[in-house]
Design brief:
Elements: E1 3-12, E2 15-25, E3 30-34, H1 41-48, E4 56-61, E5 64-65, E6 77-80, H2 92-103, H3 107-120, H4 136-149, E7 154-158, H5 166-181, E8 185-189, H6 193-199, E9 202-207, E10 210-215, H7 217-223
Parallel strand pairs: 3-8, 3-9, 6-7, 7-8
Antiparallel strand pairs: 1-2, 1-4, 4-5, 9-10
Bound molecules: adenosine-5'-triphosphate.
Length: 234
């Protein structure tokens, strides 16, 4: 699954946040989207998942342009938001059921996968819990489990490490590796450069709504010496 973002101009209610964003994520690649607070990472992601409509430019998934009229692409994308979004009135079991329905998954196969994922995140005995019963990190794990149940070919992950315990970070990265091996493409925004450096194939550095530079973290550091530590030289 290939993601191509071309000359994307966008933002909120005509307020231009993204000025001209172009980058791609190829089959089996994990690309890190990095940049200072307010650089435009979440806004870029909100356009890719179809929450915002581009003012200019295109977003293509396997060559097909995402438009408001073409919502089929949504089943191709698994999205893990920065802040967990769960339905207060639905149990963990019902969140899994909802995911299965929304993505049109094979029920038995998906539940087998869900059971494995819930075991990994120690949630297997909490199927009847409501979101109010979960801690923030546990809610994040529910979102992660739902996203990986889909086995979608494109994963969009917005700053996943904040609030996750170290074991969960390790487990999440192993799951991403597994999806990559299966050919999925992953775009992950993060501030955790040390962790990301070990796993990302490439980085796209955003600054003030534009792509400042792309490449390995070593290449970025060479061009902009502060990148590896604090991003303070951009
Ligand atoms: P962070 O690292 O803090 O998560 P980010 O790179 O994800 O930052 P964005 O959330 O994309 O940054 O924000 C980019 C710009 O868009 C900022 O100037 C921000 O103020 C603005 N912005 C973000 N959300 C909204 C919104 N809902 N309405 C209007 N402007 C917004």
């Amino acid at each position: 699954m290939t993601l191509e973002v071309s000359h994307l101009v966008g933002g909120y209610s005509q307020i231009p946040v993204l000025k001209d964003i172009s980058f791609d994520v190829k089959d089996g690649e994990l690309v890190g989207l990095i940049g200072l607070n307010g650089a435009g990472k979440s806004t870029t992601i909100n356009h890719i998942i179809g929450l915002l409509t581009p003012q200019k430019g295109t977003i293509k998934i396997n060559g097909l342009t995402i438009t408001e009229d073409n919502q089929e692409f949504k089943q191709q994308i698994a999205y893990i938001p920065e802040m967990p979004i769960l339905y207060q009135e639905l149990t963990l079991r019902e969140h899994i059921e909802l995911t299965i329905m929304a993505y049109g998954l094979d029920h038995e196969k998906a539940w087998k996968r869900a059971t494995e994922l819930l075991k990994i995140f120690r949630l297997e005995n909490k199927l009847d819990w409501f979101p109010a019963n979960f801690s923030k990190g546990m809610k994040q794990k529910v979102m992660i489990a739902c996203a990986f149940v889909t086995e979608a070919p494109l994963m969009i992950i917005d700053e996943p490490f904040l609030g996750l315990d170290p074991l969960a970070v390790h487990d999440l990265l192993s799951l991403i590796e597994e999806r990559k091996k299966a050919g999925a493409s992953v775009l992950m925004s993060t501030h955790a450069l040390d962790t990301a450096e070990k796993y990302c194939d490439r980085f796209v550095l955003l600054h003030d709504g534009q792509v400042k530079i792309e490449g390995s973290l070593a290449e970025l550091r060479q061009a902009l010496p502060g990148v590896g530590e604090t991003l303070d030289d951009i």
